[in-house]
Amino acid sequence: MKIFVDSADLEEIRSAVALGYLDGVTMNPAMLSRPRVDLQEVLPRICALVNGPVSAPVRATEAEAIVVEGRGLARLHDNVVVKIPIRHDGLRAMAKLHSEGIRTHATLCCSANQALLAAKSGAHFVSPFVGRLDDLGAAGMDLVAHIIDIFDNYEVDTEVLVASVRHPLHVQEAARLGADGCTMPLGVLEDLARHPLTDTLYDRYLADWKRS
Question: Could you say which DSSP state residue 165 is in?
Answer without folding.
Answer: -
